[in-house]
Amino acid sequence: MKYSPVGEYSLMVQDDGGGMSPEHLRHCLSFGFSNKCTNSSIGQYGNGFKTSTMRLGADTIIFSCRKANRLTRSVGLLSYTFLKGTGCNDILVPVVDYEFDPSSRNFKRIMDHGEKHFSSNLSTLLRWSQFSTEDDLLNQFEDMGCHGTKIVVSKLWLNDADEMELDFTTDDEDIMMSGAPKIPEERAKVKRLNHMHIANRFRYSLRVYASILYLRLPEHFKVILCGRTVEPHHIIKDLIYCECIKYRPQVGISVQVDVITSIGFLKGAPNLDIYGFSVYHRNRLILPFWAAGSERGRGRGIAGVLEANFIQPTHDKQDFEKTELFQRLEMRLKDMAMEYWKHHAHLVGYRPLTKSLRPAYYASIAATNDNSSVAQATATAYARNSRAKASGVLNSRFNGGNSLNPLHIGALRAQMDYGACPLARKNMRTSLYMPSTPQQTELCKRRNSGSMIETRAQKRHNTNGDADHFGSVNVVEIGEERSSLLICQNMMLKACSELEAAGQILRSKADRLMGELREWQRKGRSLTDELEFYHGLSAIQRRMPITSTSSLGVGWI
């Protein structure tokens, strides 16, 4: 950024790359020429430089120097003001070139098309650019060294309010878009949090946009804006509860590629009203925070990062071509976000989408006097939740009473010993004893001892001396049974692991036996074919006369 001699702002972009030779510069300024056919390039038609500079301002002058077999300097002008002022129907781009002369240690003019042609181009450059002399042009190379390119865009366009579209004054170390929203007050914390987030700031801050422009910065590469280096910002580092998900799109008849998507909640969720995937193509950002198939309310605070090299960007590098591959990617990202929301939303404070299971140790059922219905309902509840088989609470209504009375169906030790765990010991079942009447509570017996374990409801009954009514309704909590249940569950998991290992061995053995079976079947078919061949040969020989040299003479075999 700098002032032009006439006091107007101009935008300057400079790099210290390899630079362009006179031939390359003419190709760059020629409409429709493209030399980007490598696997690492993004451009398509060769119009990127022209369209971008003409979108920013009316006039663009480019300086480029290159050191190959010779040291050259070239200057070209792409000017809407020049074309409009001269009434040209064709696009004319004046270019002048210079070459270093070792003998005089100065740059001399390259006049491959004659001195008149060079003088005409130089005159046009000096008339329609902000530089008035040839020395002013050559002085622009002083800070460029032996290689590099400098682009100066002047006469920047204005918006509808007759203000420059680019704001150079709000921040001395940044270039902003005019009309950028103001920062909310300190007390509006949520609004301020959303406003200051990079997902919103990149839309009007060049520094923020440049910080996320590249997925990985090459070594010795940096971006300097307004004299200060742009620090790269990795969106992945802003994610919490991050997960990496592999997506394998079919890009050809038999070609698949692996796309790794990092997805998670942004720091600040659930207060952030932001959702979207940042999609890169060959290390360059194409779609920042793209709301792929977003649903209202769901996905809030979720962000993802991926590099999609299997789809093609548009010529302006602001979107992708709407192909079938792109549509499949959009649907996959939508499903990915919804699945992540389903399992992780509660981690940042949202209400879980899935209904939580009933407590593991209880099954509460309201039943009538019909004990068979109670048993049936209990069996159904226990079948739905295998963990509830350890213990449960049944609410049964007494005859003539309105209160529900909880009957504790024993503890884990009362209902099953360690050997009674499913998968831990075969042919062992956990028995659930139901009382024949509400007043008679059967005690569950241990299989390995004849001692009886009284339930807490029965103890309360014995203490009060009332065989017909219990106290107030309450849920009996499991205390000491938890450790036994955990031991049982661990034994079940161990048994499952052993079964899985045994299953793996059996599968390997089955595969080996199947291989042997196929081999024997092949041998059997071979022997059958051989036998049929000999049978046919025998039949043919029986029908053919054979001449014999023996005394038996001619005969049939």
TrEMBL record:
The keyword Transferase does not apply. Keywords: Coiled coil, DNA damage, DNA repair, Endonuclease, Hydrolase, Nuclease, Nucleus, RNA-mediated gene silencing. It comes from the Eukaryota. It is found in: Nucleus. Signal peptide: none annotated. GO terms for molecular function: ATP hydrolysis activity; endonuclease activity. GO terms for cellular component: nucleus. One of its GO terms (biological process) is DNA repair. Residues 204-341 form the Morc S5 domain. Belongs to the MORC ATPase protein family. PANTHER family: PROTEIN MICRORCHIDIA 6, ZINC FINGER CW-TYPE COILED-COIL DOMAIN PROTEIN 3. This is Morc S5 domain-containing protein. It comes from Triticum turgidum subsp. durum. The lineage of its organism: Eukaryota, Viridiplantae, Streptophyta, Embryophyta, Tracheophyta.
